[in-house]
Amino acid sequence: MWDNxxxxxxxxxxxxxxxxxxxxxxxxxxxxVIAIGIIYIMVVKPLNNxxxxxxxxxxNETTNEVVEISFxxxxxxxxxxxxxxIFKYNDSEVYKGDLLGNKTTGYSENSDxxxxxxxxxxxxxxxxxxxxxxxxxxxxxxTFFNVSYIFDLIKDNYPxxxxxxxxxxxxxxxxxxxxxxxxxxxIEISWNEDTYVLxxxxxxxxxxxxx
Length: 211
Known about the structure:
- The chain is α+β, with helices and mostly antiparallel strands.
- It has 2 domains: 2-63; 71-201, Clam (outer membrane lipoprotein receptor (LolB), chain A), CATH 2.50.20.20.
- The protein has helices spanning 2-8, 13-19, 21-63, 71-79, 139-144, 147-154, and strands at residues 82-89, 93-100, 103-110, 113-120, 123-128, 131-134, 160-162, 165-170, 173-179, 184-191, 194-201.
- Strands 6-5-4-3-2-1-11-10-9-8-7 form an 11-stranded antiparallel sheet, covered by helices on one side.
């Protein structure tokens, strides 16, 4: 067709160019490239962007996923002896301090007033203006201040679990362990008519102990 038009119009330069088969092929190829480019911009690229966005959402969901910590892992966190505590004995004595390894220091409050104490390797001292003087504590306090001893008491017992509370009965005595998603937060003990309460915070965050 283009050849006939060119012959019928010998002075038309456009028709002469179009009549050239090589040029027509090049023009046809150019149109195909343009068409493919338009299809890519309108269809393929949006799909790729959706795929990337979807992947990012999946990664965010994975990152935000809460990892459940086992009860044994929560116990081990306390057995590492690194935390702040409030220890109450029969609502008549209160001890507030930090524990790191075999050292602990803090303040005790009872009928004798408020005193600063320091304990290292099970030896207890009162601290007065940086001077240590030997101190003694009721053996019952020393016993239930030790979380390792408490966990030994419950190791062969199965708890009744209600929500975030593990309830243990040992003969006529009771131990209640309260947890959150990450740690053990409180231990309540009723033992031979005495009560003990241990509250924990800053678990694994204590860096030094000084008196």
